[in-house]
């Protein structure tokens, strides 16, 4: 019995090692990038299985298994480090909310009440339906600046702002809404993005199509959305590289999919910044969605252009 259990655990270990390694090759196939989104779960299982193998059959060779478990645990630690605020001179701050509302959400009135009672300045939303738009019309008059782009049958992408949207700055693309808002003396690009799941959908082609738009973003930029991609995935690296942005650091689980048999949470919603830093970031509630809100205070970096009062 002990031999059978050991053989089974060794088989699972090899299988998980293969799955873990293939997740690093998302550049070559979307399926591999999809696997990378479950890296935390893979590492957890692999550490547990490796330690069980060590316990069941201890020998000199088990030291290698123990060392392997330690290496996995160190990698797990670095992947799961929480948010660490960055320090730099800033000229001002604004509060941003990112939320995939879920096209089936029947609690949009609660979302509207939450925003109205908050001190949130800018909002990026995904999976916004026509029904949701009617609910969002109930927002306070101070949230009078809106930009909605149709996307797919499961709803569009949207930007809402207390600050004026600069005329002629709005644009739409597949899963992409962009507007430039005037915050104090600074002009800030706000982008709401919603990417497909890598496989079997066409996330890579979608990023190909959006790359010229991402490259065109100059100056202060905030890109937020449901990227259907973990922070370490190849897809998100492509978005960051094209837009010259950095991801707000720290691990945050932002979706609890109802489709999965097991209780799994994934870190696939993010905020990317250029010439700005996050002062804080918190995971909020779901309010009828399978996603969680992200609420962050964003600092606009001090530059020579700030000093001259000529911001991009």
How would you sum up this structure, described in words?
The structure is a single chain. With 312 residues, the chain is of the alpha+beta class. It has 2 domains: 78 residues; 219 residues, Deoxyribonuclease I, Chain A (4-Layer Sandwich), CATH 3.60.10.10. Helix content is 35%, strand content 27%. It contains 9 helices and 12 strands. Strands 3-4-2-1-12-11 form a 6-stranded mixed beta sheet, covered by helices on one side. It has a 6-stranded mixed beta sheet with strand order 5-6-7-8-10-9, with no helix packed on it. Helix 1 runs antiparallel to helix 3, helix 3 runs antiparallel to helix 4 and helix 7 runs parallel beside helix 8. The longest helix is centred in the first third of the chain and has 21 residues. It is elongated.
Question: Can I get a quick summary?
Answer:
With 312 residues, this protein is an alpha+beta fold. Helices cover 35% and strands 27% of the residues. The chain folds into 2 domains: 2-79; 90-308, 4-Layer Sandwich (Deoxyribonuclease I, Chain A).
Derived from helix and strand composition plus strand pairing, the structural class reads alpha+beta
Relative strand content: 25-35%
Q: Give the H and E element order.
A: HHHHEHEHEEEEEHEHEEEEH
Q: Helix count, per DSSP?
A: 9
CATH topology of the largest domain: Deoxyribonuclease I, Chain A
Instruction: Give the CATH superfamily of the largest domain.
Output: Endonuclease/exonuclease/phosphatase
CATH class of the largest domain, named: Alpha Beta
Mass-distribution shape: elongated
User: Between the first and last Cα atoms, what is the distance in angstroms?
Assistant: 69 Å
Integer tally of domains: 2
Question: What strand line-up does the widest sheet have?
Answer: 3-4-2-1-12-11
């Amino acid at each position: 019995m002990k031999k059978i259990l050991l053989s089974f655990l060794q088989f699972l270990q090899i299988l998980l090692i293969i799955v873990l390694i293939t997740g690093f090759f998302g550049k070559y196939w979307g399926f591999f990038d999809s696997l990378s989104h479950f890296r935390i779960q893979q590492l957890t299982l692999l550490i547990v299985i490796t330690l069980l193998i060590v316990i069941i059959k201890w020998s000199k060779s088990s030291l290698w298994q123990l060392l392997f478990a330690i290496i996995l645990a160190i990698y797990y630690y670095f992947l799961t480090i929480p948010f660490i605020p960055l320090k730099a001179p800033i000229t001002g701050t604004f509060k941003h909310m990112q939320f995939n509302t879920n096209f089936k959400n029947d609690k949009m009135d609660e979302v509207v009440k939450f925003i109205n009672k908050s001190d949130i300045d800018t909002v990026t939303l995904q999976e916004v339906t026509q029904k949701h738009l009617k609910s969002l019309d109930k927002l306070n008059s101070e949230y009078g600046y809106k930009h909605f782009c149709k996307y797919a049958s499961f709803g569009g992408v949207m930007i809402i702002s207390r600050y004026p949207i600069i005329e002629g700055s709005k644009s739409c693309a597949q899963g992409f809404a962009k507007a430039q808002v005037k915050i104090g003396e600074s002009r800030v690009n706000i982008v709401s993005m919603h990417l497909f799941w890598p496989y079997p959908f066409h996330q890579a082609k979608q990023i190909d199509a959006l790359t010229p738009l991402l490259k065109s973003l100059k100056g202060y930029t905030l890109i937020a959305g449901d990227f259907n991609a973990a922070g370490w995935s190849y897809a998100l690296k492509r978005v960051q590289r094209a837009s010259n942005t950095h991801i707000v650091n720290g691990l945050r689980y932002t979706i609890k999919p109802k489709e999965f048999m097991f209780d799994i949470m994934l870190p696939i919603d993010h905020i990317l910044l250029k010439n700005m830093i996050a002062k804080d970031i918190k995971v909020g509630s779901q309010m009828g969605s399978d996603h969680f809100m992200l609420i962050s205070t964003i600092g606009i970096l001090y530059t020579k252009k700030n000093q001259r009062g000529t911001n991009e």
